[in-house]
Write a structure and sequence with these properties.
The chain is built from five helices and nine strands; from the N terminus they run αββββαββαααβββ. The two termini are 28 Å apart.
Length: 213
């Protein structure tokens, strides 16, 4: 298979400075809503990258579950690899890839845990099985077989048969606090449009710059 032949021109649109909101959160809202309207698969999926205490980068796909001008929130086991990385180095990067629209968005910043109340509010909204799953999985640790995982799930199902599943103290939300956004729109001849928003000394204002492709 010759991967040199895997080639598409990006012709669905362009991005100009006058098209952009002064506020990157408003620009995110516009692009995200457009992705939802266009029925992009999993529009809230994002690749989250962390760096371990030893300097090893690691990336995985997670789901955005809430956002506002404080940042972007996903949920995880606090003993997982990503959470362990963030304990040692709270720098984080997230990428949304809306390929059907020939768009990408990169967000760079720092991470913090959300409040227990915020985690609980999301946790109780999850389906019963997903709440059990949070208790069952020792995320990122080795397990000998899937059958063992399913046995543990059944035990938890019996333990919480009344449907009342408490929030695990080792599970909750992580908020990405942005310092930089980069909006990318594919263009013909690989001359893509890229615009970066970067925090200024005034936290309420963002510097917007066009970047070369």
């Amino acid at each position: 298979m010759d991967l040199f032949e895997f080639r598409n021109e990006y012709l669905k649109g362009g991005l100009e400075r006058e098209m952009l909101s002064e506020n990157p959160f408003e620009q995110f809202k516009e692009w995200f809503n457009h992705a939802v309207e266009c029925k992009v698969a999993e529009p809230n999926a994002m690749v989250v990258s962390t760096v371990s205490a030893k300097g090893m980068p690691s990336s995985r796909v997670v789901l955005l579950k809430s956002w506002d001008e404080r940042g972007f929130v996903f949920y995880t086991n606090y003993k997982s690899q990503k959470a362990t990385d963030l304990e040692a180095n709270n720098n984080i990067c997230a990428i949304f890839s809306w390929l059907d629209l020939e768009r990408q968005l990169r967000i760079e910043g720092t991470a913090e845990k959300v409040s227990t109340a915020e985690s609980l509010r999301y946790f109780i909204s999850r389906p019963f099985g997903s709440r059990l799953g949070a208790w069952v999985s020792q995320q990122s640790s080795i397990i000998s077989s899937r059958s063992l995982l399913e046995m543990q799930f059944q035990k938890m199902k019996e333990k919480f048969a009344n449907g009342e599943v408490p929030l695990p103290d080792f599970w909750g939300g992580i908020r990405i606090i942005p310092k930089r956004f980069e909006f990318w729109q594919g263009r013909a001849n690989r001359l893509h449009d890229r615009f970066a928003y970067e925090k200024t000394d005034d936290d309420n204002k963002w510097k917007i710059s066009r970047l070369q492709p």
